[in-house]
UniProtKB/TrEMBL annotation:
The lineage of its organism: Eukaryota, Metazoa, Spiralia, Gnathifera, Rotifera. SUPFAM superfamilies: RNA-binding domain, RBD (SSF54928). It comes from the Eukaryota. Residues 457-471 have a biased composition (Basic residues). SMART domains: RRM. One of its GO terms (molecular function) is RNA binding. Residues 421-455 form a coiled coil. Residues 457-477 are annotated as: Disordered. This is RRM domain-containing protein. Keywords: Coiled coil. Residues 16-83, 191-258 form the RRM domain.
C-alpha cells in the first residue's frame, strides 16, 4: 500500500508503533515491510546516534490492528521488537533495548573476537550485531538479562584491545527519551495551551515542571507565536486535572493554562495573533483613589492588567520596601485602598526606594518657660544639638524570596523523593534475591532430609525383614 515518507511530524500518536532491533535495517526496507499491513504515514526523523528503534505511524486503526495481530515480525532473519508506542509511556514493559549496549569503535576484525571473548565471561549467551554509527562501526551486544547490562555499565567493564587501545561503551537511546520530541498534529483533545512564555523558558523546562506531576507526551513551542506552547498528555482526565489550576509560576513568570480549542496543525498554518487560544482571561486592577494632597505630589499610576500572583508580589514588595519621604519630614497621609467586588486594589506601581533614609533630628527644648514648639522651630538663631544615635542600615529584602524558597523547597523535596525511590528499588531487588536464595537453600535442605528419612526407613524395613526370616526357622523347630 502507499506510504508517504516526507511527512514532517506525527499526526496521531494513537496510531504509532515502536519497532525495535532496527539498527541494521535500512529505512526503505522497513517502510516496505510495514506497508504490507496497511497504509503507512512515514514520519522521517533524524536518527540519533546509538539508536536501535524506529517509530512508524499508520493511517488508520485497521492498518494498526493488522500489524499488531501478527505475532512474529522478521526482516532479514532479524526478529523485530513490536510495542504499541503510547503504552511505553505508562507501562514498564520490558524492551529488548534495555538488554543492549554499543561498544567500539571497531577498527579490525580481531577487535570483534577480543570483545566477544571478554563479555562471554559475563554472559555466555551474549551475541552481537555490527552497526554503523557516523561512518564508524560498533558492536551492538545483547545479553540475557538487564542485571548484567546494569552491572557492566556501573562497573565500566571494558576490554583492552591490541596496542593497548581501550574501546568505549554507550547506552542506546531509550524510546522514553525520544517521546518528548513528537506531538500530535490533529488530536487536540489531550492538549493544553500555555500562554505568557518568555525567551528564558524552554520546552525542556515545561516538560520537567509537568512531568513531576503527571506523565507528559510532548511539548511544542509555536514558531509563529513563541509566547504560546502546546503540551500533550495521555488522556482527557489528565488534562482536566492540570486545568484545575488556571495558572502556574515558572522562572518568575505567571503562565496561563487553557484547554486547546484548535489543533496544532491549524495553529502552525495560521500566522495571525488574534486566535481564540490567545484570548487570555486577566484580572483588571484599577488605579487606587488617592487623597488630594497625595495627588499633587505623586504621578498618576496607569491602569494595568496583572494576575493574582502579581498582586501578591506587589504586596510583598510594599511590605518589605516601605516608601520613604524625600523632601519632607512630616509623613503624608495615604488613604487605604478601597475594596471592590474582586478584592483589594493594586498598590502604587511606582515605588521610590533608591533614596537614603532621613534620620529624625532630636530637638532640645529651651529653658525659657514661654517658648513653644513653633517658636523654637522658627527661631533662626536656634541651633539644635544632635546626639549620636546607633542607626542600623536597612537591608532590602527581595520581593520574590518567598516564592523562590517555595520553588526551591519543592525541587529539593522531589529530589529526595526520587533518591528514596531509587534506593528503595535497589534494596528491594537485593532483598528479593536474598529471599529467593534462602528459599532455595531451605528447599535443598528439605530434599536432603527427605532422602535421609527414606533411606533410614528402607534400612529399618530391611533389618526387620531379616529378623523375621531368621525367626521363622527357629519357630518351626
Amino acid at each position: 500500500m502507499a506510504s508517504n515518507p516526507n511527512t514532517a511530524l506525527y499526526q496521531n500518536l494513537s496510531l504509532c508503533v515502536y519497532i525495535g532491533n532496527t539498527t541494521t535495517i535500512e529505512n526503505d526496507t522497513l517502510f516496505d515491510y510495514c506497508s504490507q499491513f496497511g497504509t503507512v504515514v512515514t514520519h522521517s526523523f533524524n536518527k540519533e546516534k546509538f539508536c536501535d528503534f524506529h517509530i512508524i505511524e499508520f493511517a488508520d486503526l485497521k492498518s494498526l490492528e493488522s500489524f499488531l495481530k501478527t505475532n512474529d515480525h522478521k526482516i532479514n532473519a532479524i526478529k523485530l521488537d513490536i510495542k504499541f508506542y503510547k503504552n511505553i509511556l505508562t507501562n514498564n514493559d520490558a524492551l529488548n533495548i534495555e538488554r543492549k549496549f554499543f561498544v567500539g569503535p571497531i577498527l579490525h576484525k580481531n577487535d570483534i573476537t577480543q570483545i566477544m571473548l571478554f563479555y562471554k565471561k559475563q554472559d555466555s549467551t551474549v551475541y552481537y550485531q555490527l552497526s554503523k554509527q557516523n561512518e564508524q562501526e560498533y558492536l551492538l551486544l545483547q545479553f540475557a538479562n538487564r542485571q548484567t547490562v546494569s552491572m557492566i555499565l556501573e562497573q565500566q567493564k571494558i576490554p583492552i584491545l591490541n596496542e593497548h587501545r581501550k574501546c568505549h561503551i554507550y547506552k542506546p537511546t531509550h524510546p522514553k527519551q525520544f517521546v518528548n520530541k513528537i506531538i500530535s498534529m490533529k488530536n487536540k483533545h489531550n492538549q493544553i495551551h500555555i500562554h505568557g512564555l518568555t525567551n528564558n523558558i524552554t520546552d525542556i523546562m515545561l516538560i520537567d515542571y509537568f512531568h513531576k506531576r503527571v506523565p507528559v507526551i510532548a511539548c511544542h513551542i509555536l514558531l509563529n507565536n513563541p509566547k504560546c506552547a502546546v503540551m500533550e498528555f495521555n488522556d482527557e482526565k489528565t488534562v482536566r486535572k492540570i486545568l484545575e489550576t488556571s495558572n502556574i509560576y515558572l522562572q518568575g513568570i505567571n503562565l496561563v493554562l487553557s484547554k486547546a480549542s484548535r489543533s496544532l496543525a491549524s495553529l502552525l498554518s495560521s500566522s495571525t495573533d488574534d486566535s481564540d487560544d490567545e484570548n487570555i482571561k486577566t484580572t483588571v486592577i484599577s488605579q487606587p483613589i488617592l487623597s488630594s494632597l497625595q495627588t499633587q505630589n505623586l504621578a498618576p499610576v496607569p491602569t494595568t492588567q496583572v494576575m493574582s500572583q502579581d498582586i501578591i508580589q506587589q504586596l510583598l514588595l510594599a511590605m518589605f520596601n516601605p516608601i520613604q519621604p524625600v523632601n519632607r519630614i512630616e509623613p503624608e497621609y495615604i488613604s487605604p485602598p478601597e475594596i471592590n467586588e474582586s478584592g483589594w486594589m493594586s498598590p502604587p506601581r511606582t515605588i521610590v526606594s533608591d533614596y537614603p533614609t532621613i534620620e529624625p533630628v532630636p530637638v532640645r527644648l529651651p529653658s525659657h518657660p514661654r517658648a513653644t514648639t513653633m517658636s523654637i522651630s522658627m527661631d533662626p538663631e536656634y541651633r539644635p544639638e544632635t546626639s549620636d544615635v546607633d542607626i542600623k542600615p536597612f537591608n532590602k529584602v527581595p520581593s520574590n524570596n518567598i516564592l523562590q524558597f517555595v520553588e526551591q523547597f519543592d525541587n529539593e523535596l522531589d529530589q529526595i523523593k526520587n533518591e528514596y525511590l531509587s534506593k528503595f528499588s535497589k534494596d528491594r531487588t537485593t532483598i528479593e534475591r536474598e529471599i529467593n536464595q534462602l528459599i532455595n537453600e531451605e528447599r535443598q535442605t528439605l530434599n536432603r532430609l527427605d532422602r535421609y528419612l527414606n533411606d533410614r526407613r528402607k534400612r529399618v524395613e530391611k533389618r526387620h525383614n531379616k529378623k523375621r526370616r531368621h525367626s521363622s526357622p527357629s519357630s518351626s523347630d
